[in-house]
Amino acid sequence: MYLNNPNIKLPQDPDTIVWKYLDLSKFLDLLLSQKLFMSRSDKFEDQYEGTFSEPTFEEIKKLSTNNPDFLNYYKTHREKVAISSWHINEYESFAMWQIFTQNSEGLAIQSTVKRLQDALVPEKNHKQFIGEVNYIDYKKEYIPFDDLFFPFLFKRKSFQYEREVRIITDVTESTIKLNDGLKINVDISQLIEKIYIHPKSENWYKNLVIQLVTQLGFDFEIEKSDLESDILI
Q1: Residue 94 domain-assigned?
Q2: Of the candidates 214, 213, 210, which has an alpha carbon nearest to the alpha carbon of residue 201?
Q3: Helix (H, G, I), strand (E, B) or coil at 232
Q4: Quick check: is 212 in a domain?
Q5: Cα–Cα distances in Å, from 98 out to 69, 72, 85, 106?
Q6: What pLDDT does residue 74 have?
Q7: Structural domain span for residue 175
Q8: Is residue 136 situated within a structural domain?
Q9: Contact between residue 198 and residue 97 where contact means Cβ atoms under 8 Å apart
Q10: Which ranges of the chain have pLDDT less than 70?
Q11: DSSP annotation string for 33-94
Q12: Is residue 6 part of a domain?
C-alpha cells in the first residue's frame, strides 16, 4: 500500500504498463533482499532533480528574503527524498534497453501502475507516494510548491522520452540517513508481472535467468525480447 495524495496525478488506467530496465546484479539483489533500491534524489545525473523552474525559484527567493531557512529547507530536502523510476510504455523500448543496460546481459521488469501501488509495504518511519512526472520548460513554466513532493514530479522537456512514473519516499520525519539511497520493502510477486531478457542476449543467458529465478522460489513469466527477432524477408 502507498499513501494517497490527491495533489499527485497518475495515469487514469491503473493497468497502464510500466517498465524498469536493469542489469542482472541489480535484479538478483531485488529478488534476494525482496527490497527495491531507491536513489537519493540529488544523486541522479540530472542536476536539476528536485529543484525548481526559474519562475518558481524567483518567487521562493522573494519569500526567503526575511526567512533564509525557507530556501535552505528546499535545498536540504533533496537529501531526504529517494526515487525509483519506471517507464510508461505499452511495449518495450529499444531506447531504454540502450540507456539503462550496459551490455547484452540486462533485463526488463514489466509491471503496471496498480501493481506498483499494491507492491509497496506500509512503512511507519517514512511517507511513500507514486506519481507521474510532468515535463516542462524550466525557463518559462511554473512549478507549484504548496506540496513538498512537487519538485520531484517535474523534469525538463528534454527528458520527455522517459515517460516516467516514480515511487517517491520521504524520510524527513524519521532518523534514517540516506547515503546513495535506501531499500524499501516490496511484495516481489505483486511488483513483477513479467521479465524480458535483453534482445541481444544468447540462449544460455535466458536459461541462466530462468534457473536463478526458479531456485529463488519465483515463477515469473520470462521471455526473450523480440526486438532482435529474425526478419521475414
Answers
A1: yes
A2: 210
A3: coil
A4: yes
A5: 42, 37, 16, 10
A6: 77
A7: 17-224
A8: yes
A9: yes
A10: 1-7, 228-233
A11: HTEEEEEEGGGSS-TTTT---HHHHHHHHHHTSS-HHHHHHHHHHGGGEEEEEEEE-SS--H
A12: no
